[in-house]
Amino acid sequence: xxxxxxxxxxxxIKHVAEDAGVSVAAVSKVLRDAYxxxxxxxGKVRASMEKLGYRxxxxxxxxxxxxxxxxxxxxxxxNPFFADILTGVNTALERTQYRPLIGISHSSVETEMAMxxxxxxxxxxxxxxxxxxxxxxxxxxxxxxxxxxxxxxxDPEATQFDTVNNHDQLGAMLVVKHLxxxxxxxxxMLSLISGTSTILAQRELGYRRGMMEAGLGKNIKILHSAxxxxxxxITANKMLSSPTPPEAIFCWTDLIALEVISVAKExxxxxxxxxxxxxxxxxxFCDFAQxxxxxxxxSGEQLGLQATRLLIERIKGRNAAxxxxxxxxxxxxxxxxxxxxx
Length: 342
Hints:
Blueprint: H1 13-20, H2 24-31, H3 39-52, H4 58-63, E1 69-74, H5 80-93, E2 99-104, H6 109-121, E3 126-130, H7 136-143, E4 148-151, E5 162-166, H8 168-181, E6 187-192, H9 198-213, E7 222-225, H10 229-241, E8 248-251, H11 254-266, E9 276-280, E10 294-297, H12 300-315, E11 323-326, E12 329-331
Parallel strand pairs: 1-2, 1-3, 3-4, 4-5, 5-11, 6-7, 6-8, 8-9, 9-10
Antiparallel strand pairs: 10-12
Helix pairs in contact: 1-2, 1-3, 5-12, 8-9, 10-11
């Protein structure tokens, strides 16, 4: 809906100033979120903006050097964990003038970079890249053009951009520790085919370390699947139909773990009982009675909040890199009950 004044024309900064009883310069300061603007002035101007339906033109803002938009690139819209991150992003933006615009890369490096180029062309003020598999070199090229925060990308030595992660290696180790404490020894991992994902590399390393520390090195088995439910179903069938099937499967994400539970039940197996299943992300679907999925909580909303905070700081001029890491925890539910438990 287009903003209108009483005369029917689009509301301008001058109309806002007249309605609020302040100068055009004062309105401009509020719009720029300038230092030293009082809450009283800010409230008065925003009330007039709301009353008149005033919205700054993004194109005009871009000409002045800032559009108050941030670009968010996601690898997939189907994974519910990304919704948790976006909830944190939106919460962080509530009291700011920034608005997010989202692009989906479908886990394609080419599509991801095309999205980034489009966002830069549209003069977005900064970028959040979630689950990116780009190299440091490519991310540094992006960061040289726009402020950048990478979520779900481990690179603590990076100096040109910020990163926000959970401690993926520790999370996987905690899963193995939880399962071995429940009497499971033949623990396999179902991971994703992705040669450059630092998240998966860290989770697989954590799984291997956990198994070695538990004295179960001979039982280490990692199978990889493409990120489609059809491929996950094929891989899960292969795992569960083998001559020596696993007693427990650690899945790289909840979405995959739920499909593994479905496959196991289709094969007549009990979860738990015949098979324990553990996911990663602790999304809302874990709590559903038919799932009761044990999962690693990596605080998706907090990741989104912190990433947004860091990005706005970068937009405002911070140059020193920050690398924020959340400590994960295992949220235990019925899907990983101890073996032979009543």
